[in-house]
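Minutes, structural biology subgroup

Action item carried over from last meeting: produce the structure token record for Class I SAM-dependent methyltransferase (Methylobacillus methanolivorans). EB confirmed the sequence was re-checked against the source entry. Recorded below for completeness.
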Amino acid sequence: MNISALPLPDTHAIAHSAQLLALIRDELAAAGGWISFARYMELALYAPGLGYYSAGATKFGEAGDFVTAPEMTPLFGHTLARQVMEVLAQTGGSVLELGAGRGRLAAAILEEMQRVGKLPDQYLILEVSADLQAVQKQHLQAVLAPALYERVCWLDALPESFTGVMLANEVLDAVPVHVVSKYGTGWQEMGVTADDQAGLMLMPRALLNQALVADIDTLNLPEPYQTEVSPAARALVASLAECLQQGVLLFIDYGFSRAEYYHPQRQQGTLMCHYRHHAHPDPLFHPGLQDITAHVDFSAMAEAGQAQGLQLLGYCGQAQFLINCGITDLMLRVPVHDLKQYAPLASQAQKLLSPAEMGELFKVLALGRGVVPLSGFVRGDRSHTL
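Output recorded by EB:
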């Protein structure tokens, strides 16, 4: 879309972005005038006190920039809780959620687990943003009974060892990516530079680290071809796998298997930005005020876990996973003839399940250690495509 058509930030937001821009310019100066796109994305999203996820602007919901499944409806968390409880019945232990947004998913999962009397030892939240930690605490304290809220604990770093279920809903898509492009002269890496007149600009240079493209260099890609790779996401999955003693890593995100991700027709990659419910392709638009994302290469994530000894337990679309976990049964708690309650619930379920909405765009990947196959993948498992 035309960037000029995006809503204008207010003066406070523009001033905030200018502070982050000054930090980025300082980093550019120290690095000789060029930084990788991955480093720029890291600063734009996570620079302390200034990055998109580190500052206080509203990010989720109608007043923010995008709506996630847990923000849309607690039905998502209630259904996911069924898979969580199945794993904890085998392993015991706790739930650890990475990047918990405003706390909606945690609330829904805990409510469902309490309803059936199968609460975890603890519900741990690993949140790197102090701002979001405060938002989560405020929300969960308001909606959970005191005894239930006491089970929630915030972490600043991964534990040395963990037993139970680790959840990451829309986390991997916000991990910084390197942008690489293939031309006749070979692979290049996209970076960010700046001048006094035009401000920040994207600029390629010869790829110095050939390991970045090792997994895709053998693919028969057309030229020109631009795409993303994320060693940081691989490293995150490896770190989670390393500390998992017994249990499951469950990733829910938009993405593809490697063959789909690096499809010859996907010549511009998957990089996308989200600002005030507008999706657009310009990552340099007001740094710090918008989300920057890339789709997930689920083949790479599965390989990172398997390299740490985890078993690939399942991979499928979100709709298939939720149906396997019994979302339709949960909907029947509300009488169909009670249109005032059932109609909104059916509309929410439609968004979660429809291939035209989130049902096929989002995928679910499960990796585990010391657990038996999961109900969420009993039908429609596509692990063989990874």
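Discussion: The domain at 3-385 is CATH 3.40.50.12710 (Rossmann fold).
Next step: EB to file the record with the rest of the batch.
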